[in-house]
Structure formats: structure tokens, C-alpha cells
Automatic annotation (TrEMBL):
Residues 60-257 form the Aminoglycoside phosphotransferase domain. SUPFAM superfamilies: Protein kinase-like (PK-like). PANTHER family: AMINOGLYCOSIDE PHOSPHOTRANSFERASE DOMAIN-CONTAINING PROTEIN, AMINOGLYCOSIDE PHOSPHOTRANSFERASE-RELATED-RELATED. This is Phosphotransferase enzyme family protein.
Length: 286
């Protein structure tokens, strides 16, 4: 069932709400939603959101197409995936052109929701994650198409062993080994890496790969005017151990309000695995 689309990808003209914006129009957009040195996310007109830059991975767009194909989870429509060579350099800029969803992020909306509204949101999200878990596993831990992980936990920069540390992995044990190896490369003077190497297999075992969003935070959830919940930012999505979604969600929940109480209404809980991952994530942050 798992497949990757041929690139470049362009939606059929009849499916477009308007002509696709040109690369120059995208670059000229002043309606920036997010930007850093390697990527920008901009709104172009009323119809399009474009994520582009040298640090953008087209795998995210392929994953959005895959999720739409195998589930009924609301995901922004994808209109184009392509790359352009930057003149005079060896760099390539990748473009993901998608639907501009009219709605508000759950991060900004949460404080104004009453209990009944939070129950409705949690119920929708629970149904989405149930669908993700029902996607048949291809038997590896990694991104769509048996590609390496791109999550921060596995990024190693210019280290020669990039593929070994980023996967894909055949077993959860090999995945844990890679995380320990990154810890050792970043902090070779610490004996703690050897401790992790010894005890992680004792406390984290028997986890299979399940399809995972990978960045379940309120900023990546939109609520449309009609109340429908839409999931965005599929950059990290792929095949992870069963505990990963919960661990990442609790790790990033910030503890400033009651969100953590609602995460467990959406996701199955893995508190023991989270406790270990929380420590390791903080030490592996670039």
C-alpha cells in the first residue's frame, strides 16, 4: 500500500482553485507565516500556502498525498511538489504548494474552548490517530519509501555515519542504538551513553512500527469555521515505535495549561517510555 509519487508533482488543472503561483511570486510574498535561514512558509493570495527553501524536504508533500490516499483524515490539498536549482550555487530549493485552510490554530484557540468543545476536538483527533494506526506496517522504522528519519533526534549534520544514525531501521533495538550513538558522538566524554546502551533495551522492547504524525502539537492542528479539525505539518511523519507519538507530544506540551490531560484522550499512553525518551530527547537536541 505504501508508495511515493513521481516527482515533480502537479495537481490536475481542474483541481486547482486558481493558477499556481510562480516561483518569483512565491519569493515576493510578504505574508510570511514562518521563516528561518533555510525555509519560508508564506501565504500567496487567498488560495495557497507554500513551504519552500533549501531546508524543505519534498517527502513531507509525498506523505500528505499518501495519508489522503489511505485515510479520510483532513489534510490540506496538495497542488505541487518540485525543485529548482539555485543559479550560481550547488543548492536546490524545494517547493511544497498546498491549500490555504481557513481556520485558526488550536494553539491560539485552546484557551477559549469550553469543555464540550475540547471533547469534540479530542474525539476528532482520536479518530484520526486510529486511522493512522490502522495503516498496514511495511516492517521498518523510517520515513515513507524506506527513507531515513529527518526528525531532530536523528540529525547528525556532517557526521559521516549519517545513514547509520538516521535509518531506516529493521528493529526498534537498532533505532535505539542509533540514538545512543548520536549521544556518544555529541558527548564522547560522558559515560552516560554506555549506560543508555545497556539499559534502554531492558525498558523499551516489543514495539512495532506504526504510522505516526511525529509532531503532535496544537500549533499543527487547525480548527475550521465549521468545527472540523485539520492536521498540518507532516514533515516528521513516518513509521515509528508505538510509544513515539505519545512521547513526543508530552515532551513538547510545555506544561502551562491542561493540554497534557487531553493528549491522553487522543493517544494511548506510554508513561514509562516517555520518561526515558524525555531525558534522551533533551540531551540529543542539536
Amino acid at each position: 500500500m505504501e508508495s511515493c509519487c513521481p516527482l515533480p508533482f502537479f495537481a490536475a488543472p481542474g483541481l486547482l482553485p486558481a493558477p499556481l503561483p510562480t516561483a518569483d511570486t512565491i519569493t515576493a510574498s510578504q505574508d510570511a507565516l514562518q521563516e528561518d535561514s533555510s525555509r519560508r512558509i508564506v501565504r500567496v493570495g487567498t488560495h495557497f500556502i507554500v513551504k519552500y527553501g533549501t531546508g524543505v524536504s519534498l517527502t513531507e508533500g509525498e506523505t500528505m498525498l499518501f495519508v489522503k490516499k489511505v485515510s479520510t483524515i483532513p489534510v490540506p490539498n496538495l497542488y505541487a511538489l518540485y525543485s529548482r536549482k539555485n543559479e550560481g550555487t550547488n543548492h536546490t530549493t524545494n517547493y511544497i504548494v498546498m491549500e490555504n485552510i481557513a481556520g485558526e490554530s488550536l494553539a491560539s484557540r485552546w484557551v477559549s474552548l469550553n469543555t464540550a468543545e475540547k471533547v469534540a476536538v479530542a474525539g476528532q483527533l482520536r479518530s484520526y490517530f486510529t486511522q493512522l494506526r490502522q495503516i498496514p506496517s511495511p516492517g521498518y522504522f523510517g520515513l515513507l519509501g524506506k527513507r531515513p528519519f529527518e526528525d531532530f533526534v536523528f540529525r547528525v549534520g556532517a557526521i559521516a555515519n549519517q545513514q547509520m544514525l538516521s535509518g531506516p531501521f529493521d528493529t526498534v533495538q537498532k533505532m535505539l542504538d542509533a540514538m545512543v550513538q548520536k549521544h556518544l558522538l555529541r558527548k564522547p566524554e560522558l559515560q552516560k551513553s554506555k549506560y543508555y546502551n545497556r539499559v534502554l533495551p531492558l525498558v523499551i522492547r516489543n514495539h512495532v512500527p506504526i504510522f505516526t504524525h511525529g509532531d503532535f502539537q496544537r500549533k499543527n492542528i487547525l480548527i475550521k469555521n465549521d468545527g472540523e479539525v485539520v492536521m498540518i505539518d507532516w514533515e516528521a511523519a513516518g513509521w515509528y515505535p508505538t510509544f513515539w507519538e505519545y512521547s513526543m507530544a508530552i515532551y513538547s506540551c510545555n506544561w502551562k495549561d491542561d493540554w497534557h490531560l487531553w493528549v491522553v484522550k487522543v493517544l494511548d499512553e506510554y508513561p514509562n517510555e516517555y520518561a526515558w525518551m524525555d531525558t534522551l530527547f533533551r540531551e540529543l537536541w542539536p
